[in-house]
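Backbone description:
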Amino acid sequence: MIINYGVNANKKYKDTLFRKLFGEDKKAALSLYNAINGSDYTNVDDLEFTTLDDVIWMKMKNDVSFMVSRTINLYEHQSSFNPNMPLRGFLYFADLYRQLTPESEKLYSRTLLKIPTPKYIVFYNGETDMKEADKLALRLSDAFDDSSVKNDFEWTATMININYGHNSEILSRCKTLEDYSKFVSLVREYQKSESLSDAINNAADDCIKNGILKEFLLKHRREVNNMTLTEFDEKKYEQVVRSDERTFLVFELVQDGDLSIDKGAKKLGMSVSDFKQAMKDNRFKVPDVE
């Protein structure tokens, strides 16, 4: 039994609905920017997409990246809580700045090299980790081994809860975001009594009838079904990862001699022979003596 996280570098990435809505439409992206920043830009030419299509981290491309008024804005969508978002954003921006400053000799100049200001927002629509909170600041310094250097360097991902009923002021300033939030809420409501596929179709029918993402849904109905299935399947992926992490932890404890093979097998509900084989398959050393 080889543990497989479902990551396949050769598999074409399926765009999420969020990325489709805001990563290809300048008007929608500018509206979202205005809603977040309280600005009133109207000229779509003020916005330039900077999304790096070849940047993949934990099987996910970044969702939307664009530049407005010398700020680089990275907007990511998450349906499950991930404390590593600051690191993800940090690595993404490093790649983006590298692309924006291709002449490496500039970095050795005596003249200060000016760069666009980074703004990193994570839109969260999961059901558990931000039930009450509207916003949450995730800081890279929380991951530092030496917490004493927090004041010397910081990188922050601001999580904004876009579940319907949260951050109503922001949602009201961006109709596409509000409609997206309503659509996801409807899918979840229908899913309580029917399959996910049926829930998506029924939610789409309701939205079209009530003018929610109507034009988009009429034009991209089949794509929306596939993208929404992919988005909701992220929950299953996260559950698999958490289960596999527990499995690997038990393997490590047995390998290091902190847990007997019998107890390890019992913890995972496996026979001793299957447990040993699973350890070998996943390149863990099976102790000679229990």
In short: The radius of gyration is 23 Å. Confidence is low (pLDDT under 50) at residues 1-14, 54-61.
